[in-house]
Amino acid sequence: MIGSAAAFYLLVNGRVMGASGIVGGLVDRSGWGTWAERLTFVAGLALVPAVLKQFFEAPVSTNITDNMPAVVLAGLLVGVGTRMANGCTSGHGVCGISRFSLRGIAATIFYLFAGGLAVIVFRHLFGSI
Amino acid sequence: MLRNITAFIAGGLFGAGLLVSGMTDTTKVQGWLDIFGDWDPTLAFVLGGAILPMIVAWNVAARRARSVLGTALPEKPGSQIDRNLMIGSLMFGAGWGLVGLCPGPAMASVSWGGVGGAVFLLSMFAGMYVAPAFKIRFNRMAEAIS
Questions:
Q1: pLDDT band at A123, cuts 50/70/90?
Q2: pLDDT tens digits for range B94-145
Q3: Is there a contact between A84 and B88 if contact means CB atoms under 8 Å apart?
Q4: Contacts of A20 in chain B (CB under 8 A)
Q5: pLDDT tens for each residue of A58-77
Q6: With contact defined as beta carbons under 8 Å apart, do A9 and B73 qualify?
Q7: Can you tell me the distance from the alpha carbon of A77 to that of A96, in angstroms, rounded to the nearest whole number?
Q8: Residue B106 and residue B96: Cα distance in Å, rounded?
Q9: Could B116 and A95 be called an inter-chain contact, meaning their C-beta atoms sit closer than 8 Å?
């Protein structure tokens, strides 16, 4: 489903389906020339799972930590990092690797490495957060 | 107008995929990133499964001049692995591992993510807002040191 969404967005709209790029262009105004397309993508991304979730028998949870300073720090790191690197899991990971882009492959190695390290540090050294 | 409808469909399909695959569950994501602990490899199949249709799509795109709706197709990306790509990806990965949310799932789960989900999303937007200025300052500093 994720792959077909990316394929659909590429072939029909002619765009790379990168979540951080689509919303980041709205936040820093660099993508205001295509604001409607970006906003409707984000609307679909937020609304369709909200409706779909109602049909799930088992409860769905994000299981996000209660540690608010950690949540704020993580959000800031994800926001700054994805814009600096020009992509996240969808842009570099899904759309970049499938194109055999060196930048996409390198970015994925770097963020998976840092992600693995963060989990080790916070889950195993400081206990789960 | 049509472009906005298809963008909504693509976003919706993406969000549905993230929900069904478990990418919006931070416990599952952190379990996948926990390579040296109790590793849960299932999300690797999600990423692999998403890459496969995209390999086909890029091949189709290479043989076309324009998208179905007549817009230009994305240009070939550069191959330069520069400082911004490395440092940015390391920062992103650290944040992703810390809480277990990356940008797509953070937006897909906003309706049931509660206060934590909303705080994460707002912090991510704040990070995206300051990112261009941060990038300039960071590079100026790095060049001064090297």
A1: confident
A2: 999 999 999 999 999 999 999 999 999 999 999 999 999 999 999 999 999 8
A3: yes
A4: 103, 128
A5: 788 999 999 999 999 999 99
A6: no
A7: 21
A8: 10
A9: no
- Three-class secondary structure of residue B74 per DSSP: coil
Supply the pLDDT for residue A38.
98
From A70-79, B13-22, B72-81, B107-116, the region with the lowest mean pLDDT:
B72-81
| Token output for A37 | 């397309």
Q: Which amino acid is at A30?
A: S
**Which residues in chain B are closer than 8 Å to A124, comparing Cβ atoms?**
36-37
- The count of CB pairs under 8 A between chains A and B is 425
| Domain with B18 in it | 2-145
For residue B43, list chain A residues with Cβ-Cβ distance below 8 A: none
Can you tell me which residue has the tokens 């950690």?
A: A70
State how far residue B118 is from chain A, nearest Cα, in angstroms. Answer: 10
State the total domains in chain B: 1
Q: List CB contacts (< 8 A) between A64 and chain B.
A: 26, 99-101, 113-114, 116-117, 120
Residue type present at position B111: S
* CB proximity list for A31: less than 8 A, separation 6 or greater: A21, A22, A24, A25, A38
Judged by DSSP in three states, B23 sits in coil
- Kindly identify which residue of chain A lies nearest to residue B19, measuring between CA atoms: A49
> Which of A108, A110, A77, A104 is closest to B91 using CA atoms?
A77
Task: Give the amino acid at A53.
Answer: K
Burial B53-68 (b: 16+ CB within 10 A, else e): bbeebbeebeeeeebe
* Interface touch B12/A47, C-beta < 8 Å: yes
Residue recorded with tokens 């689509």: A22
